Automatic annotation (TrEMBL):
This is Alpha-tubulin suppressor-like RCC1 family protein. Pfam families: WD40_RLD. Coiled coil: none annotated. Residues 34-329 form the RCC1-like domain. The lineage of its organism: Bacteria, Pseudomonadati, Pseudomonadota, Gammaproteobacteria, Orbales. PANTHER family: REGULATOR OF CHROMOSOME CONDENSATION (PTHR45982). Keywords: Guanine-nucleotide releasing factor, Repeat. InterPro entries: Ran_GTPase-activating (IPR051553), RCC1-like_dom (IPR058923), RCC1/BLIP-II (IPR009091), Reg_chr_condens (IPR000408).
Amino acid sequence: MRWKIYITLSVYIILLPSLAMSRTTDAMILSTKIASGGMGQTNSVDTGITIENGDLWIWGFRGSGQQGNGSNEPSSSAPARVDYFVRNNINIVQATAGIYHIIALDEQGNVWGWGQNGYYHAGGGVCTEGHVKSPCLVLKDKNIVRVDAGEYVSYALSADGDVYTWGHGPYGQLGNGLKVSKSAVYKIPRSDFNGEAVVLLGAAYEGGYAITQSGGVYAWGDDEDNAFGYERSSAHEYVLKPLLLTNLAVDGSEITYMCGGQPFTNYLSSSGDVYGMGGNFSLGIGQKTGKTAGPALITTDIASMYCRYSGSIALTNDGTLLTWGFASSAFNIYGIIPTQREYYDVITKIDGGKEHFIYWTENGKAYGVGYGAGHKFSQSSNNNVEFPGKELTFLLDEMKKTYGNNYIPGQGL
């Protein structure tokens, strides 16, 4: 067991040739080698998700069609790849998820969605059934470079700098100026971003973020507890269209990653500083009550960061793992201040969910920490797991059956 990890950073960079300023768009890459600027955000509650060898693996709760094979699967059944992608030789390069739906980006820049779809958050209005049980092609030939998701909403960013939204929108999550229960795919007009292309995309639990070519920072959705950096008299302010954020500690051009949870916003600067706004109990600033509009400096010397529902995870430049957030969480994966955690071996990849995360190590093992419901960490138990985590042998066994006994999982896409 080690108290620190030493990570080979593998930056997943998308070049935007049509933009004057090149910026990485990997704000929240899920399931890749640890990447500067973000490790991957998903809000899945009971379902495990990872990308391995270009395949998307699913396990745990699959009662809303999450397996993507045309039917529901018992939570205790073996982990499996999404067969549609395997049969059609489609490689997945990024995935994200809401509570019970999954969004995947393939290497051709196409976006797929499946799972629970009552608000069109999986199928984007292309597939309209309540549960989409096979991958639905939501965006084709749009050259998408990044996908993100909130609770019941999905987002995508194209190489040309356009932002697409679909799903649930009663709190302004769609950025379309309306409060609507459900929506098909909507492209936010450039005029809402001062006529500029977007180069970085992020998601909160009930909203989204975008940073433009010139460094303008925008947010939309539920501005709960001053999460967008403005003093509000009410607990919730529903921002229906992209709002320019000016009360920030750094210029938007210096932000490499931006994300949020419930109710907070975090962002990581190019110098490794993490700032936060919103409910104090989620910010790791030593306070369990109150709210903060002016950006609070949470921690420094950070290489990568990942927002969760009520807290965050970060890796320092020397490989130390920190967590902070809702201190009374039953899952013991946060901390009232940034807290150093114990875990095994050298971490190579991290996947996450609403109240859990999974880390992969250099020797090909995977460990789960946090909320255990849905048999995510064990095929025979729903128990929660504390640090340093529980080894997911059942998942590794299935991967070795597929790729061979000498295959070492968790070493990248």
